[in-house]
Amino acid sequence: MAARVRSRLVLGAVLATIALAACGTEEVPQNSLDPAGPIARDIDGLWWLVFWIAAVIFVLVQAALLVSIFRFRARKGDEGRRIRQLHGNTKLEVAWTIAPAVLLAVIAVPTVATLFDIRAEPTGDDVLEINVVGHQWWWEYEYPEFGFFTANELHIPAGRPVNLTMTSDDVIHSFWLPRLNGKRDLVPGRVSNLTLFADEPTPDGEFLWGQCAEFCGLAHADMRLKVKVHDEDGFQAWAAGQAQPAVIPTDGPAAEGWEIFKLVCTACHPVAGTEEAQVRLAPDLTHYGSRSWFAGATFRNTTEHLAAWLRNPGDLKPMAPELNDLAADPPRILGMPNFGLGGAEVDALVALLQSWE
Ligand SMILES: [Cu+2]
After folding, report:
1. In 3D, which of 163, 57, 141 has the Cα closest to residue 102?
2. CA of 21 to the centre of ligand 1 (A)
3. Pure H helices in 72-130
4. Residue among 168, 277, 265, 268 at smallest CA distance from 223
5. 212: CA distance to ligand 1 center in Å?
6. Beta bridge partner(s), residue 180
7. How far is the CA of 199 from the centre of ligand 1 (A)?
């Protein structure tokens, strides 16, 4: 390929990349440069500080480069002229070794201070405690103050700190909610902490978006999370509702659904307030009908999606239920199996799950 054609292609590709990078500023739900609380704001501030220092250095270095290229270039008539040869320059070399070292030392001060700040576990009466367990490929949340569990969709109050105490049941996961804090690993057999603090409630129907940030197998990309931020009254009302036991339906399709549920689903899914569903190997379904998202917060909890999930979970999410071993200690669960349910059974189960608001 001719050199000119090639350089035009490269230039075109670079320009297209820059132009495309500008797309999507409208809807960027996982943008750590759009902080929604004080911790994320600290991280954002640090990022901009380092960015501007780097920008100044970039401009200075490029300016020196351009001056060198144009001012000292070979001109007509220079052919055969010998350039003055230099060997080393102690003063310059000492200067360009010390200057970056000093600069890095200066950047280290706010960096280390911010790291300690955002790692500090929150204290005080107003801290909300939530226990988080990472599973392949969904999140389990326990609210010990209120005594209930939920999954994938996290609900927190605005204006006070939330302390996540986290661990994993299988492999390493990483909780990442870019608009509220940095990443933090969940490691099997260990406990880690992450503080969330949100300034304001999210508008109706809107959530903060996050996801698992540590590759954890087949459905890692579908191990997402959504966070609903409430005002204090809204949070208390939500939590009071979640703390209620499930109501077992006594007639209609939902009651038929419960008969199937007892036979098939109780092997993995807990439902508070029942004797039958006490095994905790899969998402707690006590108030499943109140959730907006499911399956690692990847799908909207609509009737169509739920029915599709029950017909064949593997259609919606790549999983490996053939590797499940419920008898192992601890049991191993790598997804929800396809139970080959018929249309009427699916409808009955949908009615049951939707009745558990
Ligand atoms: Cu994960």
Report:
1. 57
2. 27
3. 90-119
4. 168
5. 5
6. none
7. 27
| DSSP category for residue 325 | B
Report CA(38)–ligand 1 centroid distance (Å). 26
The two structure tokens encoding residue 5: 């054609």
CATH topology of domain 252-355: Immunoglobulin-like (2.60.40)
Question: How many Å lie between the centroid of ligand 1 and the Cα of residue 216?
Answer: 4
pTM above 0.85, yes or no: yes
And the tokens for 118? 């955002």
Q: Which two tokens stand for residue 69?
A: 């290229």
CA 103, 106, 111: angle at the middle one, nearest 5? 120
The DSSP letter of residue 328 is S
CA dihedral 353, 222, 43, 118 (to 10 degrees): 60
Domain boundaries along the sequence of the chain: 252-355
- Strands 153-157 and 224-230 turn out to be parallel
pLDDT (tens, 9 = 90+) of the chain, 357 residues, equals 577 788 888 888 888 877 777 665 557 899 999 999 999 999 999 999 999 999 999 999 999 999 999 998 888 888 887 878 888 899 999 999 999 999 999 999 999 999 999 999 999 999 999 999 999 999 999 999 999 999 999 999 999 999 999 999 999 999 999 999 999 999 999 999 999 999 999 999 999 999 999 999 999 999 999 999 999 999 999 999 999 999 999 999 999 999 999 999 999 999 999 999 999 999 999 999 999 999 999 999 999 999 999 999 999 999 999 999 999 988 999 999 999 999 999 999 999 999 999
Task: Compute, in angstroms, the gap from residue 163 CA to the centroid of ligand 1.
Answer: 20
Residue 23 phi/psi, 5-degree rounding, is: -70, 155
